[in-house]
Amino acid sequence: MQLVVNGAKESCDCTTLAALVAARGLKQESLVIELNGLIVKQEHWQATGLKDGDQVELLNFVGGG
After folding, report:
1. Helix (H) or strand (E) run with residue 31 in it
2. Per-residue burial over 44-57, b = 16 or more CB atoms within 10 Å of its CB, e = otherwise
3. Sign of the dihedral defined by the CA atoms of residues 32, 18, 41, 3, in that order
């Protein structure tokens, strides 16, 4: 399927947000996901399916000062 991830089109076999995070090796603790303009809470990633054409923004927060 084709997704738009952080503004770039890409092919992906991931069927859920959790699978997308795992495939990219991202740390869940500091990650926020926006799917088609809506923030999805981490507890819903496993149950949130992806479909062709979805737009996903992966936002990784880091602390510092």
Report:
1. strand 31-35
2. ebeebebeeebebe
3. positive
How many CB atoms are located within 10 Å of the residue 29 CB? 8
Contacts of 28 (CB under 8 A, 6+ apart): 21, 42, 45
CATH of domain 2-59: 3.10.20.30
Supply 27's token pair. Answer: 């740390």
Tokens 């996901």, located at residue: 33
Q: What digits encode the pLDDT tens for the residues 19-44? A: 999 999 998 888 999 999 999 999 99
- Tell me whether strands 31-35 and 55-60 are parallel, antiparallel or unpaired: antiparallel
Return the domain boundaries, the chain.
2-59
Cα–Cα distance, 6 to 31 (Å, whole number): 13
